[in-house]
Amino acid sequence: MLQDQITQYTEEINAFSTSNAAELEQFRIRFLGTKGIIKDIFDEFKAVSPEEKRTLGKVLNQFKQLAEAKYQTLNDTISASQDTADSNQFDLTLPGEGFELGTRHPLAIVRREIIEIFNKLGFSVAEGPEIEDDWHNFSALNFPEEHPARDMQDTFFIKKGGEKGDIALRTHTSSVQVRMMEAGQPPFRALMPGRVYRNEAISARAHCFFHQVEGLYVDEKVSFADLKQTLFYFVQELYGEGTKVRFRPSYFPFTEPSAEMDISCSICKGAGCQMCKGSGWVEILGCGMVDPNVLENCGIDSKKYSGFAFGMGIERIANLKFEIKDLRLFSENDVRFLKQYQSATI
Ligand code: DAH
């Protein structure tokens, strides 16, 4: 009797197939559930005679395994197809998730522009250390020992004494000129951008660090006319054709003669405004012919070679370009400020 039932259910199980999870669950409940057929048959099995138990026991176990295997196989197939169905649910036509690009810092924009202009004249780019010794920052540049000219720049000293004098944060990029000239022989034609430090109280108009670009050109027969033409070209490229320049005599220990260069105010075009304090002119850099003493200090024959140098503050150039009047904005890294220069070219 039990045997007949098992044969009949075996056929039913063999014939069963589904790809539907709900139907499979019905199958599981019907055969394998706690109140299912297999449970019933096992209960009935308890009542059969011991001889029958021996043969029937085996059949019964096989039957149970058959039901379990059937359930397992169908369940595996259904969940695998469910996974692919899930992955097909991605809507590939949805717009992608945007990611925000960073922006170039206004000082980086200006620095790149300056370098690009001088590249066209054959100037390469060189860099030097921000922690400098007295020799490279002062002495080699013709600042005499104890000379008040050293007070022109309020220095952050790091260490007293040392092989090449006191160690300090460089106060200007002119130190890189020295390093370049010490390392080789003319011709030199390079731009030296970098950060410099001065012991100043931080305000809208002064900061304890800022950025400069130094320029150096040394070769045979380099003249003040070369200096003027180079800087004139630079200004036309940077601020547009028609920008006027004027040179005022000045003093720097490392150049002789020395000058400061003004340009016609790029904001009011010379008419007079707040930026140029009504004068129509703004100063943008210092320059001059490299003092022969500096050439000699660096191992270069000043009878054979001459050169010019110049130095400008990048913040100043950016100020004239973008009218950023508060120097502190450059180092606060406020994204609301930085984002404004996203597409700026100058
Ligand atoms: N080093 C000067 C400064 O920091 C700027 C400067 C002036 C650099 C004249 C030069 C130069 O190379 O020739 O104020």
What does this structure look like?
With 346 residues, this protein is of the alpha+beta class. It folds into two domains: 2-87; 107-341, Bira Bifunctional Protein, Domain 2 (BirA Bifunctional Protein, domain 2, 2-Layer Sandwich), CATH 3.30.930.10. The chain has twelve helices and ten strands. It has helices at 2-15, 21-32, 37-45, 50-87, 106-119, 134-137, 174-182, 224-239, 292-297, 314-322, 329-332, 335-338, and strands at residues 124-125, 131-133, 157-159, 167-169, 188-197, 209-219, 245-252, 255-264, 281-290, 306-313. The strands form two sheets. A seven-stranded mixed sheet has the order 1-5-6-10-9-8-7, sandwiched between helices. A hairpin with a 7-residue loop joins strand 3 and strand 4. It is rod-shaped and about 125 Å long. The structure holds 3,4-dihydroxyphenylalanine (DAH).
Task: Identify the notable features of this structure and list them briefly.
346 residues, alpha+beta, BirA Bifunctional Protein, domain 2, seven-stranded mixed beta sheet, three-stranded antiparallel beta sheet, 12 helices, rod-shaped, binds 3,4-dihydroxyphenylalanine
Assembly type of the chains comes to single chain
Q: What sequence of helices (H) and strands (E) makes up the elements? A: HHHHHEEHEEHEEHEEEHEHHH
Shape: rod-shaped
Show unreliable segments. none
Average pLDDT number? 91
The CATH level-2 architecture of the largest domain is identified as 2-Layer Sandwich
Proportion of beta-strand residues: 15-25%
CATH fold field value of the largest domain = BirA Bifunctional Protein, domain 2
- Output the number of helix runs: 12
Radius of gyration: 42 Å
The CATH homologous superfamily of the largest domain is called: Bira Bifunctional Protein, Domain 2
Distance between the termini: 98 Å
* Helical content band: 40-55%
Secondary-structure content class: alpha+beta
| DSSP E strands, number | 10
Ligands, deduplicated: 3,4-dihydroxyphenylalanine
Strand order of the largest sheet: 1-5-6-10-9-8-7
The tally of structural domains comes to 2
CATH class of the largest domain: Alpha Beta
Characterize the biggest β-sheet.
Answer: 7 strands, mixed
